[in-house]
Design goal:
Length: about 325
Amino acid sequence: MTNMNLPWVESPFFKEILAEKQLSEEQKRIATEYNENGFIVLSGIIPQTLIDEVQKDSEKMGFDKDFPITTYRDANRVQDLWTVSENAKQLACYPQVLEILEMLYGREVIPFQTLNFKVGTQQKAHSDTIHFSSLPAKYMCGVWVALEDITPENGAVYYYPKSQRLPEYDFSSIKDGVNDSSYNDYSEYEVFIESLMKQYDIEKKCFYAKKGDILIWSSNIIHGGSPLLNKESTRWSQVTHYYFKDCIYYTPMLSNMVTNELFLRNNLVNIRTNEPVKQSFNGEEVKFIKTSKDKYIINNRIRKSNTLFKFVGNLVYKHFTKKDFR
Ligand SMILES: O=C(O)CCC(=O)C(=O)O
């Protein structure tokens, strides 16, 4: 069997690995579809009572401006409702879903972010890897849950089956400079992704979910939110983003992917345990050198302790920052 630094469901040797796994017929079906298409739809797993409670909490806590919440929220989305809603947390950590994710990825799953929506996001096509990447690559996925029926009217999530097999694109794929890029480059990235889907003639599918249906998508599948045909419609939904254990977690959008200076996700919290998430490469300790205010390079040749090196790295950074590092 040929091993790669990838989740087994993303491996080119998937069939060989599948043949050696002890899985039920249903697990084999799920894994095979996920490997081929980059997504899987599941129904009838989450109790309707929990779906209704999460919808109510979104309305009463998430979208009520008077309800105190310390995380990000605007008129259409609330980040990390799980911090105040036990129901949102339960949905993010629903045992049968976590079991499927651990089967697909072969590692302990780490739910780390929830987003609750009141209306369709109308988000342009993108891959989650630009926001949430890992080393080894692709140990990340999203689970989107409909909290009401989805129709062509209320802005269905759409996705491009099989697009997860394309390279993981970021700003360095489209910008020609070596300097840091920024969120200002995001719209150019969106235009690029849309042109790419046309260029490859990849079929777009909409997820017309029934309340309670689940869409699991792999880190690199291209997806977004359809336009709202009925501007008054709601589209109650929750998406949870998951990483898997023993990786380095970073955001390409805020990294310099030309120089490999990574914006690390150092403040991840495991929703299931409330514990901070440790960074490692397949479990091996990794040492980082800080190169600017929020970026790091990996350098495991450093012998000194991480803390001392970070301290020295910071001094060096502070000393040179205005002269050499920018
Ligand atoms: O809910 C949607 O319309 C899209 C959500 C999305 O793209 C995401 O969470 O990455």
